[in-house]
Design a protein that fits this description.
- The protein has about 375 residues and is an alpha/beta fold.
- The protein is built from 18 helices and 12 strands.
- It has a 9-stranded mixed beta sheet with strand order 1-2-6-5-4-3-7-8-9, sandwiched between helices. Strands 10-12-11 form a 3-stranded antiparallel beta sheet.
- Helix 9 packs parallel to helix 10 and helix 10 packs parallel to helix 11.
- It is elongated and about 85 Å long.
- The two termini are about 45 Å apart.
C-alpha cells in the first residue's frame, strides 16, 4: 500500500459520523477509498445519510497529523527486529475469521516479526482466545498460564487483550511454550490503544516479548489513549479472530463475559473453567456454564471440540490437576481442599496447634503448593 492509498484509508476512518458499517457499504459501492472521495455528495447519499455524505466531502482536521504520525511509525520498521504495517479490509492478509464477523474493522495496525506480519500465515492461524479477571486468584493465574502454554504447544495461537491478570498470564504461558520452528504467532495481543502506546505500563516488557514472538494488533489510530469505551469494543476482535474463547475466571459483570457473549453471537465455541463457589471470580464462569458453555477441566476438553491444530508434531500437555504424590503435610492439604481457607478453620479440621500449623503452611507455601491470600486466607494450588 502506497502512502496516497494509506491517506485515503485514514480519511475514511477519521471522517466524523462514518463508522465501520457505512465504510464497508461505501467500499462495496465504489471500490477503494480513493474512489469514494471522488464522488459527489448526491452520489454518496445513496449509501449514507445527508450528514455523512457532507462529512465525506470535507477533509478531517486530524487527517494530516494522523497521516504524518502513521507514515513515521511505518518508516521506523527495522528488518532485523519488529515489523510494522497497516492491513486494510481488502488486504489478502486480513484475518479470514475476522472477515466473517458482523463488524470487522476497516484497518488493523500490526506489530511483530516480519515472518508473521508480511506473510499469509497471519490471515488464518488457528486461534483460541483466553480471557479472564484482571484480579484473578493465584490458581486462576496459574490455570491461564498452563492452559495457554499447552494450547500453544499443540499448535494454537493464543489471543488475549494484554490486560493485567489472566490476559497477561495467558500471553506469558504461550510465550513459554516450546515452539521451535513454528510458522505461526505464539500469541496475539489485541489492545485498546494505538500501537505506539502500551497499556497498562506494567505490561511494557511483556509487549516487547510479544512483538518478538507474536503479534500486537489494534484497530485504533496511533496516539489513541486508553479510553474506557475502547476496551469492551476491542473484545469483538479477540473473539472474532478465534475459533473459541476460554474464560478462566470472571466476576458476574466483567469484560470477559462480554467477550464470551460476542464469541457466542459470532458462532464460536465458549469454554469456562469452574472454580470455588465461594470465589467471586468463579461466578461469571459458572453463569456461562449454566448458559451452555462447555465446562473445561483439561486442555483435551477444548481440543476435542475443535478441529486439529495445524502443527501435527505437537501434543497438548495435561491441564492443571491436583498433586497425587503423598506429601508429608498431606493432612493439611486435604483439610484445605481447594477453596480459600482461614487459619481457624484449618486448626479445627486438623487439630494442629497454631505454631505447628503455621510452620507447615509456610513450608507448603515455599514449595508452591499453597498460596497466601489477602484477609489471612490460604489456598491450595493445583500443579500442572
Amino acid at each position: 500500500m502506497d502512502f496516497d492509498e494509506l491517506a485515503a484509508w485514514l480519511r475514511l476512518c477519521l471522517t466524523p459520523g462514518v463508522g465501520h458499517l457505512t465504510g464497508r457499504r461505501l467500499l462495496a459501492a465504489f471500490g477503494l477509498p480513493q474512489h469514494v472521495f471522488k464522488q459527489s455528495a448526491q452520489a454518496l447519499q445513496a449509501y449514507t445519510t445527508s450528514a455523512q455524505a457532507e462529512a465525506l466531502t470535507r477533509v478531517p482536521e486530524t487527517l494530516e497529523a494522523q497521516y504524518r504520525a502513521t507514515a513515521k511509525w511505518l518508516e521506523a520498521r527495522n528488518p532485523q527486529d519488529e515489523q510494522r504495517d497497516v492491513i486494510t479490509l481488502g488486504d489478502p492478509r486480513y484475518p479470514s475469521a475476522l472477515l466473517q464477523t458482523e463488524d470487522p474493522p476497516l484497518l488493523l495496525y500490526v506489530l511483530g516479526p516480519a515472518r508473521f506480519v508480511h506473510t499469509p500465515c497471519f490471515a488464518a492461524p488457528q486461534c483460541l482466545a483466553v480471557v479472564g479477571s484482571r484480579n484473578p486468584t493465584p490458581q486462576g493465574a496459574a490455570n491461564a498460564h498452563s492452559f495457554a502454554s499447552a494450547l500453544c504447544s499443540a499448535g494454537w495461537t493464543v489471543v488475549s487483550g494484554l490486560a493485567l491478570g489472566v490476559d497477561a498470564a495467558a500471553h506469558e504461558g504461550a510465550l513459554a511454550a516450546p515452539r521451535e520452528g513454528a510458522n505461526t504467532p505464539a500469541t496475539i495481543a489485541v489492545v485498546g490503544t494505538g500501537l505506539d502506546r502500551v497499556y497498562p505500563r506494567r505490561n511494557l516488557e511483556l509487549a516487547h516479548q510479544i512483538a518478538q514472538y507474536g503479534l500486537l494488533l489494534s484497530e485504533y489510530p496511533l496516539g489513541t489513549p486508553p479510553l474506557a469505551a475502547n476496551f469492551p469494543k476491542r473484545n469483538r476482535i479477540i473473539s472474532g479472530l478465534s475459533q473459541g474463547t476460554l474464560v478462566v475466571e470472571a466476576a458476574p459483570a466483567s469484560g470477559s463475559l462480554i467477550t464470551a457473549r460476542m464469541a457466542s453471537e459470532q458462532g464460536r465455541e465458549v469454554f469456562a473453567i469452574p472454580g470455588s463457589i465461594h470465589a467471586v471470580q468463579s461466578r461469571g464462569c459458572h453463569a456461562l456454564i449454566r448458559q451452555g458453555a462447555k465446562l473445561v477441566e483439561t486442555v483435551q476438553d477444548i481440543l476435542e471440540e475443535l478441529p486439529a491444530a495445524s502443527n501435527p508434531h505437537t501434543t497438548a500437555s495435561a491441564a492443571p490437576t491436583p498433586p497425587t504424590t503423598p506429601h508429608k503435610h498431606s493432612a493439611v492439604l486435604e483439610a484445605m481442599g481447594f477453596d480459600p481457607t482461614g487459619l481457624d478453620a484449618l486448626q479445627a479440621r486438623t487439630g494442629l496447634d497454631t505454631p505447628t500449623l503455621q510452620v507447615q503452611l509456610l513450608e507448603l507455601e515455599i514449595e508452591g503448593l499453597v498460596m497466601r491470600l489477602p484477609g489471612g486466607l490460604f489456598q491450595r494450588m493445583a500443579l500442572a
